[in-house]
């Protein structure tokens, strides 16, 4: 992924050996912090190797020279984990006519029906990945607000490394009746973290948030577990958040008053259920500005030279029905042609055949490899990722490669003679590209940012007020390679998703060839 996405967004970790007690302790700590639907997951205690990675909830430890010289900051570091999912509609001619809804409705939106039906989530999300990847300011901001309204597994917010907003936190607070909706949950969390204060006055938290990654040995103590649990509760427990009177209840309006500090009331805000509050809106505006700045900062891939926003719209997106708009401002710029989102979208589009085109090709290749023992290993199908096959995959976004392989193969290409080594290599390349694209569709984007009064050259920064800046950093996580043989699962999942969506969708699908 590093050659495809660039070193700006992909960090290479350091492999280390770890003792058995470390793995066992981590399993115990993680079990208590996992959501219910992931309690069956655990770390393999037989594996005594680990990878040391930076804590992406913070800015890079060496990113701000003034901090390296021992000058601490009282400004908190906020970070956001976004799981964008697939940002385009397929156009492959190999999609079966009975599943043409894939041309108009994205995979994420189709899955919402089954996720609610299975009880994984209580209601469908209005978030659509195509809005996030659109390079249109209004649609991107709309996508952010949809994620806040129903974060599911696609949005998490952290303050100084502590989770303050997730779907699990929202549901817990709603069940306890400490908040009425997800929007209020985020607003409360940001106010308790003094986010809006951080923009207007000297910060009072007194937390040095740009710190080194936690020491490995300290990560496995009971104190860490207790500390995390306590701080999460502290961030999301709202004081005095009951409704003022029965009339306010009926209107869905609640007075949100932040804690008093030194006898001075920080913020009073009448919250309308289902609408983001002032702290949340400012938070999302900063996030939007970071993505806009990033899109012009990093150079686009050769295949990604786009001069206008992506107008492709998923049929399930409600953006066109909404009255959503962003107030124009002199410092609001248009999206550039590069950045993490466009690079990620380019890698996702390496899946140009759709799983319905890849699956029959995969079956033929798999049968051929099974009839030729040792060939799969010698070609490096399952790694190492330094062999020529994977080097070709890593070069897939270069213009000279795209000229020859990015166009959709004809049906005769998919049925070519695999005894010809070039045909076999090309077929393997398409399947491996599909695997890499699948990773890009399922990874997360980590955005960390911190206020500063002085702009440092070592980190990108956006200006929020005259003389005030936010340094930021963007990283991609969850980049584990998808297995070559996972094609079968993706194929079955795709068919099931379309089938269930078709049963519940009462709209007529209009399709034109």
TrEMBL record:
UniProt-listed InterPro entries: Ins_P5_2-kin (IPR009286), IP5_2-K_N_lobe (IPR043001)
Keyword ATP-binding tagged: yes
Pfam families recorded: Ins_P5_2-kin
Record keyword Transferase present: yes
Any one of the GO CC terms: nucleus
EC number assigned by the record: 2.7.1.158
Keywords from the named record: ATP-binding, Kinase, Nucleotide-binding, Transferase
Signal peptide (from-to): none
GO biological processes: inositol phosphate biosynthetic process
Catalytic activity: 1D-myo-inositol 1,3,4,5,6-pentakisphosphate + ATP = 1D-myo-inositol hexakisphosphate + ADP + H(+)
Function: Phosphorylates Ins(1,3,4,5,6)P5 at position 2 to form Ins(1,2,3,4,5,6)P6 (InsP6 or phytate).
Protein name in the entry: Inositol-pentakisphosphate 2-kinase
Species whose genome carries this gene: Stylophora pistillata
């Amino acid at each position: 992924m590093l050659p495809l996405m660039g070193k700006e967004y992909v960090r290479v970790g350091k492999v280390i050996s770890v003792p058995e007690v470390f793995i066992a302790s981590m399993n115990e700590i993680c079990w208590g912090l996992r959501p219910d639907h992931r309690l069956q997951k655990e770390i393999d205690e037989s594996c005594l190797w680990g990878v040391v990675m930076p804590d992406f909830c913070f800015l890079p430890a060496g990113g701000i020279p003034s901090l390296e010289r021992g000058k601490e900051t009282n400004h908190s570091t906020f970070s956001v984990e976004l799981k964008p999912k697939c940002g385009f509609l397929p156009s492959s001619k190999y999609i079966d006519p009975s599943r043409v809804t894939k041309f108009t409705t994205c995979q994420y939106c189709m899955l919402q029906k089954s996720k609610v039906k299975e009880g994984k989530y209580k209601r469908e999300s209005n978030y659509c990945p195509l809005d996030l990847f659109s390079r249109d300011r209004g649609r991107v901001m709309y996508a952010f607000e949809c994620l806040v309204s129903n974060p599911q597994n696609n949005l998490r917010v952290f303050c100084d490394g502590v989770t303050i907003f997730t779907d699990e936190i929202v549901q817990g607070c709603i069940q306890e009746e400490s908040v009425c909706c997800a929007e209020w949950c985020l607003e409360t969390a940001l106010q308790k973290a003094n986010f809006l204060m951080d923009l207007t006055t000297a910060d009072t938290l007194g937390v040095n948030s740009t710190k080194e990654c936690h020491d490995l040995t300290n990560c496995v103590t009971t104190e860490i577990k207790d500390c995390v649990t306590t701080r999460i509760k502290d961030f999301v427990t709202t004081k005095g958040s009951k409704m003022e009177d029965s009339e306010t209840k009926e209107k869905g309006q609640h007075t949100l008053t932040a804690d008093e500090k030194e006898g001075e009331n920080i913020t009073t805000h009448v919250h309308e259920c289902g609408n983001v509050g002032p702290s949340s809106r400012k938070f999302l505006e900063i996030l939007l500005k970071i993505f806009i700045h990033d899109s012009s900062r990093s150079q686009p891939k050769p295949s990604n030279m786009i001069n206008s926003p992506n107008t492709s719209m998923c049929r399930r997106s409600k953006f066109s029905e909404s009255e959503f708009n962003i107030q124009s401002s002199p410092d609001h710029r248009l999206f550039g042609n590069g950045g993490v989102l466009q690079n990620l979208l380019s890698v996702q589009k390496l899946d140009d055949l759709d799983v319905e085109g890849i699956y029959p090709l995969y079956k033929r290749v798999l049968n051929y490899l099974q009839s030729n023992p040792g060939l799969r290993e010698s070609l490096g199908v399952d790694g190492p990722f330094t062999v020529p096959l994977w080097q070709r995959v890593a070069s897939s976004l270069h213009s000279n490669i795209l000229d020859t392989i990015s166009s959709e193969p004809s049906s005769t290409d998919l049925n070519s003679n695999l005894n010809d080594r070039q045909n076999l290599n090309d077929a393997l390349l398409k399947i491996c590209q599909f695997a890499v694209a699948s990773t890009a569709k399922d990874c997360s984007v980590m955005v960390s940012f911190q206020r500063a009064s002085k702009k440092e050259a070592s980190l990108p920064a956006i200006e929020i007020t005259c003389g005030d800046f936010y340094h930021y950093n963007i990283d991609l996580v969850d980049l584990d390679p998808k297995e070559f043989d996972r094609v079968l699962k993706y194929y079955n999942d795709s068919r099931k998703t379309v089938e269930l969506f078709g049963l519940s969708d009462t709209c007529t699908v209009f399709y034109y060839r």
